[in-house]
Amino acid sequence: MIILNNDEVTAKQLRANFFTVFIILCFATIIFRASDFLISEDFFAQEQLINEYIISDIPENPEELTDGPEIFEYTQKIETPPTPTHGLSRFFDKLYQVERGFDIVLRIAYHGDSMIEDNHTVNAVRRNFERRFGQDFIVIDNYAVRGSSGLSLLKQDFADAPDYDLIILQYGANVLSSGRSTYKWYGDRMIKVIEHLRRSFSQADILVVSSADKAAKYGNEIATDTLVYSLIRSQEDYANATNSGFINIFDLMGGAGTMADWVRRTPPLGARDFIHLSPAGSRKIGNALYEQLENEYEDYKANRSD
User: Fold this and answer.
1) 32 belongs to a structural domain
2) pLDDT tens per residue across span 258-276
3) What is the pLDDT, as a whole number, of residue 14?
4) Is 241 in a helix, a strand, or coil?
5) How many structural domains compose the chain?
6) Between the CA of residue 187 and those of 48, 111, 242, what are the distances in Å?
7) Is position 52 within any domain?
């Protein structure tokens, strides 16, 4: 008969406990990784989408891409419905009434992440509207939530919210930080968000504003993060699918490489993290956004039947 002393028993117990903890950690890791794929609902569909968006065919040197959306012209697999010309027709009709002297007040809800948190972009849009239509006819409420992707809007109860005529959704920076390489899962959920907003604000039009440029380091070069193109395509797709307006801020900024250029300017228009904007850059975005809206409004007026 073998007799074990207390030290030997303790050592065996420690080894057994360590082995048990190791097995538990292994299973936890497997479950965590599996859930990472399941969150996009279908891993194989996700892999197919990566191929369709030809992420693997992006040139090694991102500077070869002079215009972000061109990356999607390399393949004929994706057929996108045309962007609605007047997805904002009800809002433009109300602007037209204001311009003709009707005594009404238009209210805009501007939802976004930290890109609009400093209020410079929203204030620039507000000042331009006031300059064109008067201070008494436009109210813009800023709903900036740092770290938000916009998906949390699906859980919000808007029963006590004001009646809005236009809802602007400007997200992207936090979605790019999600670690995903394709964004169909995000687009599918944002469709549900917009449907929820339409049920909550039946008289409001929706405007989707794309992600701004975001830079990343490739070797010794700083260039546009290649995932920006995939995210913007997803944003345009869910705008089209919900008949919402869509404005491509990435293009209005100047396209690929803009963020790196903006950071180097004097004074800088971008922040040193190559994601956020300086106050001057935020105002520039706000002015560009309003100018695009104004151009679309003029097109809308030119096509009115009356």
Assistant:
1) yes
2) 999 999 999 999 999 999 9
3) 56
4) helix
5) 2
6) 16, 17, 11
7) no
